[in-house]
Amino acid sequence: MSDNTILFAVDLAIHEGGLQEFENTVRAMIAASDREPGTLGYEWFLSGDRRQCRLIETYRDGDAALAHLTGPVVQKLVPQLLHAATLQRFEVYGDPGKKASEMLAGFGAAIFSPWHGLRR
């Protein structure tokens, strides 16, 4: 991770009987995120019982994170995703900037600013 990189960690609980709708929406979200400049990673992980999901998103910088938050993935597809799942936890690592931080707070995200570490 560079000094400007932003990472989102999102945990979701998939509703009973909602896996197919969830999967269809996730595929659309991946395709749309792939077209967003500055999106470095957009990876989904599913638990063995297929009820819990973790999304790890990586953005080049705060501008790229803000573009994602104001773009069609978040504005159109996230509401659709939340018909099939419940947001359990949302953590942000890095400094996404003032406007993105305000938007993320609206989603209930906890923002963790860089403190100590080693980067290569």
Give structural notes:
This protein is α+β, with helices and mostly antiparallel strands. The chain has a single domain (6-107), classed as 2-Layer Sandwich (Alpha-Beta Plaits). Helix content is 37%, strand content 31%. It has four helices and five strands; from the N terminus they run E-H-E-E-H-H-E-H-E. It has helices at residues 19-34, 62-70, 72-81, 98-106; strands at 6-14, 39-46, 52-59, 85-93, 110-112. A five-stranded mixed beta sheet has the order 2-3-1-4-5. Helix 4 links the parallel strand 4 and strand 5.
Largest sheet: 5 strands, mixed
Content-based structural category? alpha+beta
- Approximate helicity band: 25-40%
Low-confidence runs: none
- CATH level-3 fold name: Alpha-Beta Plaits
Shape: globular
Strands of the widest sheet, in order across it, are: 2-3-1-4-5
How many discrete structural domains? 1
Report the C-alpha radius of gyration, rounded: 14 Å
Order of helices and strands: EHEEHHEHE
Whole-number mean pLDDT: 95
The CATH architecture can be named as 2-Layer Sandwich
User: What is the CATH level 1 assignment?
Assistant: Alpha Beta
